Amino acid sequence: MDMDVRRDLRSAVAPFESPFAVASLVQFLSTLLLYVGCCALMYRSLSISYALTLALAFPAAAFLTRLFIIQHDCGHGSFFRSERANTLVGRICSVITLAPYDSWRRQHALHHANWNNLDRRESGTDIYSAWLTVREFRALSPWRRFLHRAVRHPLIAHGLLPPAIFLILYRVPFDTPKHWRRERRSVHATNAAIAAAVIALGWFLGFGAVAAVQLPIVVVSTVAGVWLFGIQHRFDAAQYFREAEWSFAQASLQGSSYLKLPRLLQWSSGNIGFHHIHHLAPRVPNYRLESCYRSNPLLQAEPPLTLRRALRSIALALWDERQQKFVAFADAK
To answer: Is the pTM higher than 0.90?
Structure first.
């Protein structure tokens, strides 16, 4: 990608990097109220039918996912101009999303610095955005190949692991270096706030009721949310690069997707489908991503990833350097 194109891209996104305080406040407060209101309906429905309670878990999970996107924007400093406001709202959201704000923010910054770089896969990546090449997978022992495949089986990677990560792993600073003192403190502070909220709700509503309502919301939202984040970098047209070939703009447009979602899903996911623009310009708030996309043909150069194609991409697991594309484990034999 030549210098002129990079300059044009920079000019295209720059006007959209400023948040609007009123819009941000309205989005945060409305989403929070919708989530709290839906949870209240779920608690009320327990005396009517638990099937109704479970049905209401889906809209509640959509609102929770939207709160996570707000927390995510705060972590990028894109939701408010004020760092203090971003930190305050991000930490409030983190008690509800179960993801410690300061720790998650710093880890996520490493992802943005190294995504789709084959030579820096150990820096700020996870099983949803870092992959072995076919050659590396074939070089593993049979036992390690089995373990690698088992963890990445769709039922485990997209079913069991997401709730476990948010409910269990995020309760300890499992991947936070010891010298990240502020981030490690944030894990414990978030845990204390979550514990206080659970105790208060349990005291007034019953701990069984709290588990019956909150756990389904966590399961649905984490399964959907983790899949949404992961698919942005693992789809049939995604490109990975070696260090010598990697560039910020090219990795954004060719290594991240524009996932075209139905309007309701686009709203509930906070426009995260415009992920190529988000990686190109993380300071663009989520509610300005679509306008940014429509402002310049350069941002529309890559074809959108449809929901059907995205669902088919669940089977993709290894990067084939020879073919320059993702393949399934079955194709690596």
So the answer is: yes
**Where is 252: in which H helix or E strand?**
helix 248-255
Q: Yes or no: say if 77 and 88 are a contact pair by the CB < 8 Å rule.
A: no
The token duo for 187 is 């894990």
Q: For 221-252, what is each residue's pLDDT tens digit?
A: 999 999 998 888 888 888 888 888 888 888 88
Name residue 129's amino acid: S
pLDDT one-digit tens code per residue, 22-78: 999 999 999 999 999 999 999 999 999 999 999 999 999 999 999 999 999 999 999
Q: How many CB atoms lie within 10 A of CB 234?
A: 21
Which of the 8 DSSP states describes residue 178? T
Kindly report the backbone phi and psi dihedral angles of residue 305, in degrees, each rounded to the nearest multiple of 5, phi listed first.
-90, 120
As given in the structure block, the two tokens for residue 207 are: 């701990």
| 3-state SS assignment for residue 215 | helix
CB atoms closer than 10 angstroms to residue 180: 17
CA distances from 284 to 6, 12, 244 (A): 17, 11, 28
Pick the closest to residue 316 from 129, 188, 177 (CA basis).
129
What contacts 24+ positions apart, CB below 8 Å, involve 283-286?
283/17, 283/76, 283/77, 283/78, 284/13, 284/16, 284/17, 284/78, 285/19, 285/20, 285/23, 285/24, 285/73, 285/78, 285/79, 286/69, 286/70, 286/72, 286/73, 286/78
Among 280, 289, 283, 292, residue whose Cα is nearest residue 249: 280
CA dihedral defined by 79, 85, 88, 94, rounded to 10 degrees? 0
pLDDT at 3 over 70: no
